[in-house]
Write a structure and sequence with these properties.
single chain; alpha+beta; Arc Repressor Mutant, subunit A; 4-stranded mixed sheet; 14% strand; globular
């Protein structure tokens, strides 16, 4: 099935810009800045299935993919997982010009996973919106997390990456 998976050659700054452009292009943000990823998946031709195993992504071809979410995880975890798997789809499939079937399994710590996590954080918590919320709430990551529908840990890591802390 598919080719060997390759990391994107984009810099992290370029990945952030790419993710934010996608969010803007598909108008995924509500008035509060929260991303609607379930609608984005549908718009892109994908589907979401809940399973008893770990999260993963299966791409049949461009515009035809399935994101698998575990049955036992929270809404906030699922939100980040959707963004992460979309990161694989955009960075490691579309952007690299891949075709045909590919599967992305949970893979621990490697460059592909780090890039997908960075894409996810950038898609869910765009830089300027995040900075505004950080100015509003300071380091109260519980409140910032509520705004973006992510975990407080994800909000704290985003603040560190953006050098706000």
């Amino acid at each position: 099935m598919g080719q060997a998976q390759r990391a994107s050659e984009l810099s992290y700054d370029a990945i952030q810009q790419y993710a934010e452009r996608i969010g803007t292009k598909y108008k995924i943000y509500d008035a509060d800045g929260r991303a609607n990823l379930k609608d984005l998946v549908k718009t892109l031709g994908g589907q979401i299935e809940y399973v008893d195993t770990d999260e993963s992504l299966f791409v049949a071809d461009e515009g035809k993919f399935t994101i698998f979410l575990p049955n036992h995880t929270s809404q906030r975890r699922d939100q980040f997982t959707l963004a992460h798997e979309l990161g694989h789809y955009f960075l490691h499939y579309l952007q690299l010009g891949e075709t045909g079937e590919m599967a992305f399994q949970r893979g621990g710590q490697n460059r592909l996973e780090t890039q997908a996590n960075f894409f996810a954080a950038s898609l869910l918590m765009p830089k300027e919106s995040f900075k505004n919320q950080y100015e509003r709430f300071g380091s109260n990551f519980f409140h910032i997390a509520q705004v973006f529908d992510v975990s407080p840990a994800a909000a704290e890591i985003r603040a560190e990456v953006l050098r706000l802390t």
